[in-house]
Amino acid sequence: MQEDITVYVETEAGEKVALSLPTDMGLSLMEALKAHELEIMATCGGMALCATCHVELMESPELPEPSDDELYMLENLPNLRAGSRLSCQIKVTPDLDGAVLRLMANH
Ligand code: FES
């Protein structure tokens, strides 16, 4: 049974764009954002090596803690925020429903 969730992406103008994402395809959040043609480079293809998939989670349900590799990349970002995550390391699961995020690679 397919269950879609809704994730909101806040634009620079402060608007929230609602994205409907499928949870049964094993996608990472980065892949799902890319599929919606959002500006996210994801140069390393999801290996936690480039941080060009950096997002700030502004509102989010409890998610699994970042791995050491993800933490290492995040700690070296000049624009680190309290809710910073690498979107390639987050799976699109029902837990993510209602999350609000901002794309950070260009900030
Ligand atoms: S895509 Fe490179 S760190 Fe996420």
Automatic annotation (TrEMBL):
SUPFAM superfamilies tied to this protein: 2Fe-2S ferredoxin-like
Gene3D superfamilies: 3.10.20.30
Cofactor: [2Fe-2S] cluster
UniProt GO molecular function: 2 iron, 2 sulfur cluster binding; electron transfer activity; metal ion binding
Record keywords, A-Z: 2Fe-2S, Iron, Iron-sulfur, Metal-binding
Similarity comment: Belongs to the adrenodoxin/putidaredoxin family.
Gene Ontology biological-process annotations: P450-containing electron transport chain
Domain annotation 2Fe-2S ferredoxin-type: ranges: 3-107
Organism of this sequence: Rufibacter radiotolerans
PANTHER family: FERREDOXIN-2, MITOCHONDRIAL (PTHR23426:SF65), FERREDOXIN/ADRENODOXIN (PTHR23426)
Keyword Metal-binding: yes
One Pfam family per UniProt: Fer2
Protein name, UniProt field: Ferredoxin
